Amino acid sequence: MKPTDIAQPDYFHKVVDCQWACPAHTPVPEYIRLIAQGRYDDAYLVNWKSNVFPGILGRTCDRPCEPACRRVRVEEGSPEHRKAHAKPEPVAICRLKRTAADYKSDIRARLPKPAARMNGKRIALVGGGPASLTVARDLAPHGYHCVVFDGDAKAGGMMRTQIPKFRLPDRVIDEECGYILDLGVEFRGGTRVDSMARLLDEGYDAIFVGSGAPRGRDLDIPGRREAAAHIHVGIDWLASVSFGHTTSIGRRVVVLGGGNTAMDCCRSARRLGGEKVDVVVRSGFDEMKASPWEKEDAQHEGIPIHNYLVPKAFLHEQGRLVGITFDKVRALRDATGRRELVPTGEPEVRFDCDDVLVAVGQENSFPWIERGLGIEFDRWGMPVVDRTTLASTRPGVFFGGDAAFGPKKDRKSVV
């Protein structure tokens, strides 16, 4: 038997299952004990140190800590619990994070202060979302002059533009982004970086790219161009709603996709006038990427989820969208467990609709990074980075969050 390796702190993190499951390794038991003692300020600051945005994550995190919670195993092993036929439930770790954020007092006096003396180093951060803001939070107190560039007028990135306000109010984003900007971080809102070469020429000591995965995938099937006026890419549509450009939608809405963006789209459509909103997914219900509670919230609002249907064609009459057809499929797995969706041979399924929201995934987009600068990309168009240091193949240029590893959750961007 090999001796226990305690050289890496991972060994100690794994002792606490929920803490290890959290990508930021937030000390969950510690802040829950503080909440139980009514010490909300202390509980909030424990979170702030490790995950940066407790109020935001307390409303939007997909909670990997909760499936790891030991409370489920305790209840499964309890004769009294089994006798009551109660479903084992984890501790509500995520909602307790929000509790600390909502019940705390003014904690600004306990946060780090702007550096008393600058160290002469200038850092450019592309994108005003959680990845760039986390880097700025960690560097600014040490005297680095951090300059955050973002095309939008306010900081927050896709937390502000793609998460509906009924889930994440602007006041929460303003507060927690403000804690970081108040550290002396320079925020250049409304300034889109469209050339890495020009940014390099400005002489920054380092550049961090935290621009996220800003491009939504489209669906190229028959009828897409003819009915384009009423077919919307999900994340773009959510941004339009967030900025107040879109204030209504058709009475009958179909949402394509099974992730959390699709759940945000369908619930937003309901609030904007959609009387009949249907979510259609090509996979099975349990295989959907959306968090279980996101699916439950949609269903509680009377939004049905239809599974194993693959989009076939948009139907249109005189340039007006009237419906969409689907092929019915079933899942087969080969000897290796690889899943394949095969047609069932049943008649196609039709949904009549006035609008379609396409939420079938997101992609990275780096048209502003010129090739030939020493920044290598792989065959999928993703930057080649060191997974530990986040350094690219050009010294002094780093990538983080979705920009480095593809679409994830806010909690991954703060790690």
Summarize model confidence as the mean pLDDT: 93
Helix/strand/pairing category: alpha/beta
Using the CA coordinates, give the radius of gyration: 23 Å
Strands of the biggest beta sheet: in what spatial order? Answer: 3-2-1-4-16
* Fraction in helix: 25-40%
Largest sheet: 5 strands, parallel
Percent of residues in β-strands: 15-25%
* Low-pLDDT runs: none
In total, the number of strands is 16
The best one-word shape is: globular
What is the terminal separation in angstroms?
A: 33 Å
What is the overall number of helices?
17
Describe the structure.
- By secondary structure, the chain is of the alpha/beta class.
- It has 17 helices and 16 strands.
- The protein has helices spanning 10-13, 17-21, 28-36, 40-51, 54-60, 70-76, 79-83, 93-103, 130-139, 158-161, 170-181, 196-201, 234-242, 260-271, 292-300, 402-405, 410-413; strands at 122-126, 145-150, 186-189, 206-209, 215-216, 231-233, 252-256, 276-280, 305-306, 309-317, 320-333, 339-343, 349-352, 355-358, 362-363, 397-399.
- It has a 5-stranded parallel sheet, covered by helices on one side. Strands 6-14-7-8-9 form a 5-stranded parallel sheet. Strands 10, 11, 12 and 13 form a 4-stranded antiparallel sheet that branches.
- The longest helix is centred in the N-terminal third of the chain and has 12 residues, at 40-51.
- The radius of gyration is 23 Å and the shape is globular.
Architecture blueprint of SSEs:
Layout: H1 10-13, H2 17-21, H3 28-36, H4 40-51, H5 54-60, H6 70-76, H7 79-83, H8 93-103, E1 122-126, H9 130-139, E2 145-150, H10 158-161, H11 170-181, E3 186-189, H12 196-201, E4 206-209, E5 215-216, E6 231-233, H13 234-242, E7 252-256, H14 260-271, E8 276-280, H15 292-300, E9 305-306, E10 309-317, E11 320-333, E12 339-343, E13 349-352, E14 355-358, E15 362-363, E16 397-399, H16 402-405, H17 410-413
